Amino acid sequence: MKNKNIKSTFIIAIIGTILSSILVSATLAQAGDLKTKQQIKARTIMLESPTAKSKKPILKYKSIKSSYKQEVDAFKNTKKQFLDARGKFKSFKNKENKAVLEDSARDYLKKTILVLIKKTESINDWVSNDKSIEDQEKNNIITELDSDISWLNSMVDNIDEATQEQVKVKAKEVKDYWKEHRVKMKKITGQIMASRISFLIKKSELISTKISSRIEKLKQAGKDVSAIEAIPNVLNEKINLAKVKATSAKSTFSSISNLSEANNLFLKGRGFVSQAQTYIKEGRNSIKQMISAHRQANK
Fold it and tell me: Which residues touch 19 (CB under 8 Å, ≥6 apart)?
């Protein structure tokens, strides 16, 4: 009876770790999706084409992401083996099946940790190469992620030789650690989102300054600028509105401190970011319309 209870607790701990890792991965995936969308928006607004130099970090990130996918595939295979072994042991509770189940549980836990390591490494690399994040904030995030990677690597050590009780303890430690770490991941993801929208706002301000200078030169050359003269004011109005939302987003994300409120604060902050993006987009669309009217008038 005692051995049966140990096995049940052991399996529950393993499954708990897996569930925790899935929740963390979902949060990090949101950050990855945001990055892709923001890159497109930033390039559209700035009218920039990626150079060979700028492609290097992207290629590195894709390589790490591919490595992560391989770990996920291996994890899924290991999970299936574990579930098969558990089902077999439930049907035939003998010494041989018990040994297979325990080995499968070790592999299952190990693959779970390796997936978490790869995912954290991909976020670490993304942050390292993201020019929109200020150096101090970037260094703080990287330090935290490096600490997580180091801790997870320590959890992988000696799993293959661990006893059933040792694996159970490791599984609970990983589960508890990542349960708390979900809060940190939400906060870091929010910080990155806030940094990226602030980056776009700064770029928009630069565009506004350049347009103002261009309009002044056209005036001096005797050109009709009536259709585009209001561009700087219209764009600056949208930029100021976006700044207010960006500040609210940053403040909201910074206040994330515990699991009970993390999701609500994250969604609230993301809403502010979305509103700021909308203002920037509206400003860009206004520019396009005014420039089009100017070209029609000067045909």
Answer: none
C-alpha to C-alpha distance for 153 and 147, rounded to whole angstroms: 10
Tokens, residue 291:
């420039």
Tokens matching residue 216: 């002044």
What is the rounded CA–CA span in Å between residue 3 and residue 12? Answer: 14
pTM for the complete prediction? 0.68
Strand, helix or coil for residue 83: helix
Averaged over successive runs of 10 residues, the pLDDT of the chain (299 residues) comes to 47 43 43 42 39 54 68 75 77 80 83 85 84 87 91 88 84 81 84 91 92 89 85 92 96 90 93 95 89 78
Rounded CA-CA distance 128/122 in Å is: 10
Q: Concatenated DSSP letters for 147-190?
A: HHHHHHHHHHTTTTT--HHHHHHHHHHHHHHHHHHHHHHHHHHH
211, 230 in Cβ contact below 8 A? no
CA 107-81-121 angle, to 5 degrees, is: 45
Q: Give, as one character, the DSSP assignment of residue 299.
A: -
